[in-house]
Amino acid sequence: MTPRQLEEYRALRDTVRERGTARVWVFLVGIMGWAIVAAATAAYLTVPIYTFLPLLILASTFEAVFSLHVAVERIGRYIQVFLETDGNGWEHVAMAVGPPLKGTRADPLFTACFVVADALNVVPALLAQPLPVERNVVLGAHAVLLVRILVARYTAARQRAADLERFTKLKSGPTEHARS
Length: 180
Fold this sequence. Notes:
Layout: H1 3-43, H2 52-83, H3 90-97, H4 111-127, H5 132-172, H6 176-179
Helix pairs in contact: 1-2, 1-4, 2-4, 2-5, 4-5
């Protein structure tokens, strides 16, 4: 590696470490914030639409966790293709090892926690005996978040291989599409 590449490698590995740690803290603080606001709105709920405030906190927390995860994965593939040219670095080894054994895989997006929180968030609105239109609006908003979480989980599971393919193509040279 050239001195510039070594400096870039170190900075990017630091970024991966920092964002990976930040992802967990964003999740924990966001879930705690959601729980506090959800409990407060549930205690004083008079209008089912009030569940939108904790839902917004939950959705924002998920989006922050997701964006940190996507960035870390993308940086990892960049390192793998452009900086680990000998094929022996951490990113190459991690890809070669493959996924963990069934039942031992951690979920970097905390999908189950977000799905459960989304379901719990709607309960106070339903207990308030909403009008059909209120119920449908509240359920619809919560369904949108649920779909977002599941789609993000699906795409995140395929991101690593897709980014590796894209970076490999970029490294091999510009394509006809990129030149025009």
